[in-house]
Amino acid sequence: YDIRSFLSNETGIGIYFKNLVNQIITSYDHRYYLLSASLKKRFDKRKLKLNSNVVLKDKRIPVSLLDLLWYRAKLLPFGFFFRQSMDLVHSPVPSLIPGRHKQIITVHDLCLVDSPELVNQDTISNFQHDLHESIEKADGIVAVSEFTKDRILSNFGNQYQSKIKVIYHGSDLDDIEETMPESSQPLPEKYLLYVGTIEPRKNISVLLRAIDDILGEHPDLKLLVCGNKGWESDQTYRLLEQKIIEKKVIHLPYSNRASLKYLYRNASLLLFPSIYEGFGLPILEAAHCGTSVA
Protein backbone atom coordinates (compact mmCIF):
# COMPACT_ATOMS: atom_id res chain seq x y z
CA TYR A 1 0.00 0.00 0.00
CA ASP A 2 1.12 3.51 -0.87
CA ILE A 3 0.16 5.29 2.38
CA ARG A 4 1.37 8.79 1.48
CA SER A 5 -2.23 9.98 1.27
CA PHE A 6 -2.45 10.10 5.07
CA LEU A 7 1.10 11.21 5.82
CA SER A 8 -0.07 14.74 6.74
CA ASN A 9 -3.46 16.09 7.82
CA GLU A 10 -6.08 13.63 6.71
CA THR A 11 -8.79 14.72 4.33
CA GLY A 12 -10.93 12.79 1.83
CA ILE A 13 -8.63 10.22 0.23
CA GLY A 14 -6.34 10.07 3.27
CA ILE A 15 -9.20 9.29 5.67
CA TYR A 16 -10.54 6.65 3.31
CA PHE A 17 -7.21 4.92 2.82
CA LYS A 18 -6.13 5.03 6.48
CA ASN A 19 -9.36 3.36 7.56
CA LEU A 20 -9.15 0.81 4.74
CA VAL A 21 -5.53 -0.15 5.46
CA ASN A 22 -6.11 -0.43 9.21
CA GLN A 23 -9.17 -2.60 8.70
CA ILE A 24 -7.38 -4.94 6.30
CA ILE A 25 -4.12 -5.38 8.22
CA THR A 26 -6.02 -6.27 11.39
CA SER A 27 -8.56 -8.58 9.72
CA TYR A 28 -6.55 -10.89 7.46
CA ASP A 29 -3.45 -12.94 8.16
CA HIS A 30 -1.20 -11.89 5.27
CA ARG A 31 2.09 -10.05 4.89
CA TYR A 32 1.59 -6.32 4.25
CA TYR A 33 4.09 -3.81 2.89
CA LEU A 34 3.35 -0.13 3.50
CA LEU A 35 5.32 2.69 1.90
CA SER A 36 5.43 6.37 2.86
CA ALA A 37 7.78 8.89 1.29
CA SER A 38 8.57 12.55 1.83
CA LEU A 39 11.72 14.63 1.93
CA LYS A 40 10.79 16.51 5.13
CA LYS A 41 7.84 14.82 6.80
CA ARG A 42 8.08 11.55 8.68
CA PHE A 43 5.17 9.16 8.99
CA ASP A 44 3.44 8.98 12.38
CA LYS A 45 3.21 5.25 13.16
CA ARG A 46 0.41 5.91 15.65
CA LYS A 47 -1.94 6.28 12.69
CA LEU A 48 -1.60 2.56 11.98
CA LYS A 49 -2.62 -0.54 13.90
CA LEU A 50 0.75 -2.17 13.32
CA ASN A 51 1.38 -5.83 13.98
CA SER A 52 4.00 -8.47 13.15
CA ASN A 53 2.55 -8.96 9.66
CA VAL A 54 3.26 -5.36 8.63
CA VAL A 55 6.47 -3.99 7.13
CA LEU A 56 6.55 -0.19 7.02
CA LYS A 57 9.10 1.86 5.09
CA ASP A 58 9.34 5.64 5.44
CA LYS A 59 11.65 6.94 2.73
CA ARG A 60 13.24 10.39 2.39
CA ILE A 61 12.09 10.92 -1.18
CA PRO A 62 10.24 14.04 -2.34
CA VAL A 63 6.58 13.34 -3.01
CA SER A 64 6.77 15.06 -6.40
CA LEU A 65 9.79 12.97 -7.43
CA LEU A 66 8.12 9.66 -6.59
CA ASP A 67 4.97 10.78 -8.40
CA LEU A 68 7.07 11.61 -11.44
CA LEU A 69 8.89 8.27 -11.36
CA TRP A 70 5.73 6.22 -10.87
CA TYR A 71 3.04 8.03 -12.81
CA ARG A 72 4.99 9.59 -15.66
CA ALA A 73 8.24 7.62 -16.16
CA LYS A 74 6.77 4.26 -15.02
CA LEU A 75 9.94 3.49 -13.06
CA LEU A 76 10.76 1.94 -9.66
CA PRO A 77 8.55 -1.06 -8.94
CA PHE A 78 6.81 -0.93 -5.57
CA GLY A 79 8.74 -4.01 -4.45
CA PHE A 80 12.06 -2.23 -5.05
CA PHE A 81 11.72 -0.43 -1.73
CA PHE A 82 11.35 -3.71 0.16
CA ARG A 83 13.66 -5.92 -1.92
CA GLN A 84 10.62 -8.10 -2.28
CA SER A 85 8.28 -9.01 -5.12
CA MET A 86 4.64 -8.20 -4.48
CA ASP A 87 1.55 -10.27 -5.22
CA LEU A 88 -0.90 -7.37 -5.13
CA VAL A 89 -0.56 -3.58 -4.87
CA HIS A 90 -3.44 -1.22 -4.11
CA SER A 91 -3.12 2.39 -5.24
CA PRO A 92 -5.40 4.94 -3.53
CA VAL A 93 -5.47 6.99 -6.73
CA PRO A 94 -6.48 5.99 -10.28
CA SER A 95 -2.98 5.35 -11.57
CA LEU A 96 -0.98 2.12 -11.66
CA ILE A 97 2.17 1.65 -9.58
CA PRO A 98 4.99 0.02 -11.57
CA GLY A 99 5.77 -3.66 -11.04
CA ARG A 100 4.91 -7.19 -12.12
CA HIS A 101 2.13 -7.58 -9.60
CA LYS A 102 -1.64 -7.57 -9.72
CA GLN A 103 -3.10 -4.10 -9.29
CA ILE A 104 -6.12 -2.59 -7.61
CA ILE A 105 -6.86 1.11 -8.01
CA THR A 106 -9.46 3.24 -6.26
CA VAL A 107 -11.36 5.77 -8.35
CA HIS A 108 -12.93 8.45 -6.16
CA ASP A 109 -14.35 10.58 -8.95
CA LEU A 110 -13.81 11.49 -12.60
CA CYS A 111 -13.79 15.24 -12.12
CA LEU A 112 -10.54 15.53 -14.09
CA VAL A 113 -12.41 14.09 -17.11
CA ASP A 114 -15.89 15.53 -16.58
CA SER A 115 -14.89 18.99 -15.31
CA PRO A 116 -11.12 19.48 -15.67
CA GLU A 117 -11.46 23.22 -15.00
CA LEU A 118 -12.23 22.27 -11.37
CA VAL A 119 -9.02 20.25 -10.92
CA ASN A 120 -5.54 21.57 -10.18
CA GLN A 121 -2.79 21.15 -12.76
CA ASP A 122 -0.70 18.71 -10.70
CA THR A 123 -3.60 16.25 -10.56
CA ILE A 124 -4.20 16.59 -14.29
CA SER A 125 -0.48 16.14 -15.04
CA ASN A 126 -0.16 13.03 -12.86
CA PHE A 127 -3.33 11.17 -13.77
CA GLN A 128 -5.20 12.38 -16.83
CA HIS A 129 -2.78 11.23 -19.53
CA ASP A 130 -2.89 7.53 -18.58
CA LEU A 131 -6.23 7.23 -16.80
CA HIS A 132 -7.73 5.09 -19.55
CA GLU A 133 -4.67 2.81 -19.50
CA SER A 134 -4.98 2.42 -15.73
CA ILE A 135 -8.68 1.53 -16.03
CA GLU A 136 -7.85 -0.99 -18.78
CA LYS A 137 -4.85 -2.67 -17.12
CA ALA A 138 -5.98 -2.71 -13.48
CA ASP A 139 -6.99 -6.15 -12.24
CA GLY A 140 -9.62 -4.62 -9.98
CA ILE A 141 -11.20 -1.20 -9.56
CA VAL A 142 -12.82 0.15 -6.41
CA ALA A 143 -15.42 2.86 -7.07
CA VAL A 144 -16.58 4.76 -3.99
CA SER A 145 -20.14 5.24 -5.31
CA GLU A 146 -22.52 4.11 -8.01
CA PHE A 147 -22.12 7.57 -9.53
CA THR A 148 -18.36 7.08 -9.90
CA LYS A 149 -18.89 3.63 -11.39
CA ASP A 150 -21.38 5.07 -13.89
CA ARG A 151 -18.93 7.81 -14.88
CA ILE A 152 -16.16 5.22 -15.46
CA LEU A 153 -18.41 3.16 -17.72
CA SER A 154 -19.76 6.21 -19.54
CA ASN A 155 -16.28 7.55 -20.27
CA PHE A 156 -14.38 4.33 -20.96
CA GLY A 157 -16.89 1.64 -21.89
CA ASN A 158 -19.08 -1.09 -20.41
CA GLN A 159 -16.38 -3.71 -20.99
CA TYR A 160 -14.88 -2.78 -17.60
CA GLN A 161 -18.04 -3.40 -15.61
CA SER A 162 -17.02 -6.85 -14.37
CA LYS A 163 -13.91 -5.62 -12.57
CA ILE A 164 -15.49 -2.60 -10.87
CA LYS A 165 -16.69 -3.05 -7.30
CA VAL A 166 -18.60 -0.29 -5.55
CA ILE A 167 -17.45 -0.02 -1.94
CA TYR A 168 -18.89 2.91 -0.02
CA HIS A 169 -17.06 4.95 2.57
CA GLY A 170 -17.65 4.23 6.24
CA SER A 171 -17.11 6.43 9.27
CA ASP A 172 -14.44 6.11 11.93
CA LEU A 173 -15.94 8.80 14.16
CA ASP A 174 -17.33 6.30 16.69
CA ASP A 175 -13.74 5.35 17.49
CA ILE A 176 -12.67 8.96 18.12
CA GLU A 177 -13.14 10.89 21.35
CA GLU A 178 -14.12 14.43 20.41
CA THR A 179 -12.25 17.49 21.63
CA MET A 180 -13.14 21.16 21.35
CA PRO A 181 -11.13 22.84 18.59
CA GLU A 182 -8.49 25.38 19.53
CA SER A 183 -9.63 28.82 18.44
CA SER A 184 -8.52 32.41 19.00
CA GLN A 185 -12.16 33.33 19.62
CA PRO A 186 -15.07 31.58 21.36
CA LEU A 187 -17.07 29.25 19.15
CA PRO A 188 -20.66 30.41 18.60
CA GLU A 189 -23.47 28.61 20.37
CA LYS A 190 -25.31 28.15 17.07
CA TYR A 191 -23.54 27.84 13.75
CA LEU A 192 -23.82 26.58 10.20
CA LEU A 193 -20.84 24.42 9.29
CA TYR A 194 -18.80 24.11 6.11
CA VAL A 195 -16.10 21.40 5.97
CA GLY A 196 -13.69 21.11 3.05
CA THR A 197 -10.69 22.50 1.26
CA ILE A 198 -11.16 26.05 0.00
CA GLU A 199 -10.89 25.52 -3.76
CA PRO A 200 -13.09 26.06 -6.85
CA ARG A 201 -14.74 22.61 -6.86
CA LYS A 202 -16.02 23.05 -3.31
CA ASN A 203 -17.90 26.24 -4.29
CA ILE A 204 -17.71 27.92 -0.88
CA SER A 205 -17.88 31.37 -2.49
CA VAL A 206 -21.61 30.74 -2.98
CA LEU A 207 -22.03 30.43 0.80
CA LEU A 208 -19.97 33.52 1.50
CA ARG A 209 -22.04 35.60 -0.94
CA ALA A 210 -25.31 34.28 0.50
CA ILE A 211 -24.42 34.57 4.18
CA ASP A 212 -25.79 38.13 4.54
CA ASP A 213 -29.27 36.97 3.51
CA ILE A 214 -29.06 33.84 5.67
CA LEU A 215 -27.98 35.71 8.78
CA GLY A 216 -30.53 38.43 8.08
CA GLU A 217 -33.26 35.85 8.64
CA HIS A 218 -31.36 34.04 11.41
CA PRO A 219 -29.25 36.62 13.29
CA ASP A 220 -28.40 34.14 16.06
CA LEU A 221 -26.32 32.04 13.64
CA LYS A 222 -22.76 32.26 12.35
CA LEU A 223 -21.06 30.43 9.49
CA LEU A 224 -18.12 28.33 10.67
CA VAL A 225 -15.71 27.40 7.89
CA CYS A 226 -13.40 24.47 8.66
CA GLY A 227 -10.82 23.90 5.93
CA ASN A 228 -7.40 24.80 4.60
CA LYS A 229 -6.51 26.93 1.62
CA GLY A 230 -6.34 25.08 -1.67
CA TRP A 231 -5.50 26.03 -5.23
CA GLU A 232 -7.02 29.05 -7.04
CA SER A 233 -8.52 30.34 -3.79
CA ASP A 234 -7.10 33.88 -3.41
CA GLN A 235 -10.32 35.62 -4.44
CA THR A 236 -12.41 33.36 -2.20
CA TYR A 237 -10.01 33.99 0.68
CA ARG A 238 -10.41 37.76 0.29
CA LEU A 239 -14.17 37.34 0.51
CA LEU A 240 -13.75 35.05 3.51
CA GLU A 241 -11.56 37.60 5.30
CA GLN A 242 -14.14 40.32 4.60
CA LYS A 243 -16.89 38.23 6.21
CA ILE A 244 -14.61 37.48 9.19
CA ILE A 245 -14.08 41.24 9.71
CA GLU A 246 -17.86 41.69 9.54
CA LYS A 247 -18.13 39.05 12.32
CA LYS A 248 -20.38 36.85 10.21
CA VAL A 249 -17.90 34.02 9.63
CA ILE A 250 -15.38 32.17 11.78
CA HIS A 251 -12.56 30.31 10.04
CA LEU A 252 -10.84 27.30 11.59
CA PRO A 253 -8.05 25.59 9.64
CA TYR A 254 -8.49 21.83 9.61
CA SER A 255 -6.60 20.33 12.56
CA ASN A 256 -7.65 16.80 13.52
CA ARG A 257 -10.50 14.30 13.48
CA ALA A 258 -11.34 14.74 17.17
CA SER A 259 -12.01 18.46 16.70
CA LEU A 260 -13.94 17.83 13.51
CA LYS A 261 -16.24 15.40 15.32
CA TYR A 262 -17.01 18.12 17.86
CA LEU A 263 -17.85 20.58 15.08
CA TYR A 264 -20.13 18.12 13.31
CA ARG A 265 -21.99 17.13 16.46
CA ASN A 266 -22.64 20.69 17.64
CA ALA A 267 -23.53 22.28 14.28
CA SER A 268 -27.08 23.35 13.52
CA LEU A 269 -26.61 22.31 9.88
CA LEU A 270 -23.84 21.21 7.52
CA LEU A 271 -23.78 23.21 4.28
CA PHE A 272 -22.29 21.33 1.33
CA PRO A 273 -22.36 23.39 -1.88
CA SER A 274 -19.76 21.36 -3.81
CA ILE A 275 -20.08 21.38 -7.60
CA TYR A 276 -18.71 17.87 -8.14
CA GLU A 277 -18.11 14.92 -5.79
CA GLY A 278 -17.57 11.22 -6.21
CA PHE A 279 -18.96 10.55 -2.74
CA GLY A 280 -18.96 13.56 -0.39
CA LEU A 281 -17.51 12.29 2.90
CA PRO A 282 -18.62 15.29 5.05
CA ILE A 283 -22.26 14.45 4.27
CA LEU A 284 -21.82 10.94 5.67
CA GLU A 285 -19.88 12.15 8.70
CA ALA A 286 -22.37 14.89 9.59
CA ALA A 287 -25.29 12.49 9.28
CA HIS A 288 -23.39 9.98 11.42
CA CYS A 289 -23.17 12.65 14.12
CA GLY A 290 -26.89 13.42 13.89
CA THR A 291 -26.51 16.70 12.01
CA SER A 292 -28.71 17.57 9.03
CA VAL A 293 -27.19 18.48 5.66
CA ALA A 294 -28.17 21.03 3.04
Please, could you describe this protein's structure?
This protein is α/β, with parallel strands linked by helices and 294 residues long. 33% of the residues lie in helices and 15% in strands. It is built from ten helices and ten strands. The strands form three sheets. Strands 3-4-5-6 form a four-stranded parallel beta sheet. A four-stranded parallel beta sheet has the order 9-8-7-10, with helices on both faces. Strands 1-2 form a two-stranded parallel ribbon. Helix 7 links the parallel strand 7 and strand 8. Helix 7 runs parallel beside helix 8. The chain is globular, with a radius of gyration of 20 Å. The model has no long low-confidence stretch (mean pLDDT 95).
In short:
By secondary structure, this protein is an alpha/beta fold.
Q: Indicate the proportion of strand residues.
A: 15-25%
| H/I helix tally | 10
Q: Would you count the extended β strands for me?
A: 10
Q: Which series of helices and strands comes N to C?
A: HEEHEEHHHEHEEHEHEHEH
Q: Which oligomeric form is depicted?
A: single chain
**Low-confidence segments, ≥5 residues, pLDDT <50?**
none
In the sheet with the most strands, the strands line up as 3-4-5-6
- Overall form: globular
Largest sheet descriptor:
4 strands, parallel
* Residues in helix, %: 25-40%
Q: Report how far the terminal alpha carbons are from each other.
A: 35 Å
Q: Mean pLDDT, rounded to whole units?
A: 95
- How much is the radius of gyration in Å? 20 Å
Structural class, from secondary structure content?
A: alpha/beta
